Amino acid sequence: MTYAPIPMIPGPTTVHPNVLAAMARDYGSGQVEQEFPDLYADTGKGLARLMETKNDVVIMTGEAMLALWGALKSCLKPGDQVLSIGTGVFGDGIADMAASIGCRVEKLSFPYNSTIDSSALQQIEDAAKRVRPVMLTAVHCETPSGTLNPLAELGAMKQRLAIPLFYVDAVASLGGVPVQADAWNIDLLLAGSQKCLSAPPSMSMIGVSEAAWEHMMRAGYQGYDSILPFRTVQKDGRCPYTPYWHGVAAVKAALDMLLNEGLDAVFARHEAVARQCRQGLDELGVKAFPAPDAVSSPTVTAALIPQKYTWKEWQQRLRERGLIVAGSFGPMTDKVFRLGHMGLQADPALMEKALAAIGDAL
């Protein structure tokens, strides 16, 4: 029997038709035509609305890792103290990235099926008082674990303890769940185009606070991933290197799609499909990976591979039924599979097909 493909990869996600249409045009030179800086400015305003920030928003050419690396290298100097909070592969990975550029890193690693709770907050505060970090880092949505870290109290702690910089990876959450950069005292809000925005993996977006700009001036980092040269783009209309007009147009089209739907409706849609996914898996006897007291992400679900199958066997059975899912990383390798219900894939009809495929595979 032939099955229609059911895309449930947690990024890059299915690209929206409006985004494809925006990229199908032929554009002029972003360094010559006034239309481009106008587009850049409008796209930045839309992103600021999505991030809930009054800070500057920088748009760079490159997949989201460009933002993650660029924010560290732009703000930190060798010897700077970093306090890294990890509840998964990506959170701990940021600690390793900071260490690789010569920072002194205090890594607080919590179970990968957990999220930040009151006990973790106390440990974080104790560590922050002891090491006095220049930067506190955390991941909002840990995609390999399918979890969503509450960040409001962590941001309040950052402010209370006068930690200079709060760095947050929101790559798999921005556009799918509320992100409140200003309310959570985030100085570097990092995102990419390929997850909830349903655009290709070509653009990085960074919300940058005034404190972060000041630290960039202190660090003086130069390189393709340096954020500082973008500070004046909206003032003088010139990017530090050839801008990717198609990529910015794609992000703008994706933002228009979300804003036209209404952000409350977008977030409610993601919540509803996530709930549909988890209830459906539970009814099929497929166990969730996150602990019962952890916060599961509205954008991705991580579940345990049924015991009688290897990951390779399980993946093949699902593919034979048209369902494309992802495995996981680190200690979850060959134990966990993931469904990405974000962006265009946060669709109840699509999830119904996915659950039917899983049921048939079982």
CATH superfamily of the largest domain: Type I PLP-dependent aspartate aminotransferase-like (Major domain)
* Integer count of domains: 2
Major β-sheet strand ordering: 2-10-9-8-5-3-4
> How do the helices and strands follow one another from N- to C-terminus?
EHHEHEHEHEEEHEEEHHHHEHEEH
Major sheet size, sense and barrel closure: 7 strands, mixed
Low-confidence spans: pLDDT under 50, at least 5 residues? none
Strand content range: 15-25%
| Shape annotation | globular
Corresponding CATH architecture of the largest domain: 3-Layer(aba) Sandwich
| Mean pLDDT across residues | 96
What structural class do you assign from the helix and strand content? alpha/beta
CATH class of the largest domain: Alpha Beta
The total strand number stands at: 13
Helix percent reads: 40-55%
The name CATH uses for the topology of the largest domain is Aspartate Aminotransferase, domain 2
Rg to the nearest angstrom? 20 Å
Number of helices: 12
